[in-house]
Specification:
Helix content: 10-25%
Distance between the termini: 45 Å
Order of helices and strands: EHEHHEEEEE
CATH topology: Ubiquitin-like (UB roll)
Largest sheet: 5 strands, mixed
Strand content: 15-25%
CATH architecture: Roll
CATH superfamily: Beta-grasp domain
Number of strands: 7
Strand order of the largest sheet: 2-1-7-5-6
Number of helices: 3
Length: 89
């Protein structure tokens, strides 16, 4: 599986697109395997044990929910939450 990442996830992977050995069945499984391979990505994708609501995942160019099936030859795109700056002045 090829995984393309955006934003701060690039600092976790070191590259825009990385290969991932995927043995799961769903988008949620793919995220779990991705963070196992790239632990520094975890805080950008998860809040505790839950995937952050603002994380966007696409499979083969189409937005996909976490429960969607995904094959090991799919192209996954991960867009983490965009964190805003402080408004304190």
């Amino acid at each position: 599986m090829d995984v393309t990442v955006y934003g701060p996830l690039r600092s976790a992977t070191g590259e825009k697109t990385v290969g991932l050995e995927f043995t799961g069945a769903t988008v949620s499984d793919a995220l779990a395997e991705f963070t196992a391979a790239y632990p520094r990505a975890t805080p950008y994708l998860y809040d505790g044990d839950e995937v952050r609501a603002s994380v966007r995942v696409s499979v083969n160019g189409e937005r996909a929910p976490l429960e969607a099936p995904v094959s090991n030859d799919a192209e996954l795109t991960l867009m983490p939450a965009v964190q805003g700056g402080s408004t304190d002045g």
